[in-house]
Design a protein that fits this description.
It is found in: Cell inner membrane. It is a multi-pass membrane protein. Involved in mercury resistance. Probably transfers a mercuric ion from the periplasmic Hg(2+)-binding protein MerP to the cytoplasmic mercuric reductase MerA. The chain is mainly α. It is built from four helices and no strands. The chain is elongated. The relative contact order is 0.18.
């Protein structure tokens, strides 16, 4: 059975979340930077892909969670991955990225409350 790389899963989750939120967060960020125009409205063309990209984000986050918490670590004694601080850093990184991605994905639902 193939093992999933935690960094790869988190990176794929980040890309999927960015893709899922580009239709909503993208125009907001561009307008805050002073960049505008009629072409910004074209970013909403990605809205039909949003549910698929949200699903991909959650899939990759769950793969990273499974790798970090549910699968036993297989490391050679003395290897870098055998050190407890490495696993602790990976878990902290996972939760920071997961919270950031969930915040990014929730922007379309929470944005009306800030307008």
């Amino acid at each position: 059975m193939a093992t999933f790389n935690v960094k790869g899963s988190l990176f794929a989750g980040v890309l999927a979340a960015i893709g899922a939120s580009v239709c909503c967060v993208g125009p907001l960020v561009l307008l805050m930077l002073g960049i505008g125009g009629a072409w910004v409205a074209n970013l909403t063309a990605l809205e039909p892909l949003r549910p698929w990209l949200i699903g991909a984000t959650l899939l990759f986050l769950s793969l990273a969670f499974r790798r970090l918490y549910l699968q036993p670590q297989v490391c050679e004694p003395g290897a870098t991955c055998a050190k407890p601080i490495v696993l602790r850093r990976q878990r902290w990184t996972f939760w920071i990225v997961a919270l950031a991605l969930l915040a990014l994905l929730s922007v379309p639902w929470l944005a009306p409350y800030f307008l």
